[in-house]
Write a sequence for this structure.
């Protein structure tokens, strides 16, 4: 693997794990009363935060986990449990209402103030762990280790991939208005519930993978790696 391959693989993995398209219904509900400028400002803050957060983990690699004495297996299990709880919440009928825009009727010219208030509300649990979950962080840490082996060019490619994933996410959120109009309220509710089901399954997979790493031989590789041929 060279620097270009690492950058491309990291971008594809991050875009799939952050899943901006699947998260559009939640972002739409959270900015329902916003003007286009306000929505773009909120999207910019969230994506900037996501990019900086991922870049931080790419820089620190395993150092941060080692500092606190946390194994990658324990991190995956803890993150999986958190994602499981969030996925169960997403299957509830009132999940989107919990993200409802509370600034409806605010001054349309108040772009910065609106963006700041919405960003504070969406950092948790939307940005973390829904967008940036254990999968994205684990991928970043693993690829950071690979980049160190390849050299400075691979490290630079990793940062470019993170920036590209954050920008692609911003573009998806910028199209929230047209997409939400096409899907409608019922369509968005269906997408969120399906995403919640997938998130629950993904969370269980993280927990199983963490347990298999923590206790070798406890769980069959058929469960932890169900489609080995697809990984190559």
């Amino acid at each position: 693997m060279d620097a270009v391959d690492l950058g491309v693989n990291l971008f594809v993995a991050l875009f799939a794990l952050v899943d901006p398209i699947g998260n559009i219904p939640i972002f739409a509900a959270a900015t329902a009363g916003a003007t286009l400028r306000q929505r773009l400002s909120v999207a910019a803050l969230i994506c900037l935060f996501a990019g900086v957060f991922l870049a931080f983990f790419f820089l620190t690699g395993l150092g941060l986990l080692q500092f606190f004495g946390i194994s990658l297996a324990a991190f995956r299990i803890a993150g999986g449990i958190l994602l499981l709880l969030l996925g169960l919440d997403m299957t509830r009928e009132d999940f989107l209402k919990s993200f409802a825009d509370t600034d409806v009727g605010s001054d349309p010219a108040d772009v910065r103030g609106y963006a700041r208030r919405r960003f504070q509300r969406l950092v948790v649990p939307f940005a973390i762990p829904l967008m940036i979950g254990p999968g994205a962080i684990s991928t970043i840490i693993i690829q950071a280790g690979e980049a160190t082996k390849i050299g400075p060019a691979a490290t630079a490619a990793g940062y470019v991939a993170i920036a590209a994933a954050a920008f692609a996410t911003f573009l998806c959120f910028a199209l929230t208005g047209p997409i939400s109009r096409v899907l409608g309220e019922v369509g968005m509710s269906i997408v969120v519930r399906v995403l919640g089901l997938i998130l629950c399954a993904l969370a269980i997979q993280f927990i199983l993978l963490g347990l298999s790493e923590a206790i070798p031989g406890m769980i069959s590789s058929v469960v932890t790696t169900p489609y080995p041929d697809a990984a190559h």
User: Anything to note?
Assistant: Residues 24 and 179 are 8 Å apart (CA to CA). Residues 176-214 form the longest helix (39 residues). The chain has ten helices and no strands. The two ends are 13 Å apart (CA to CA).
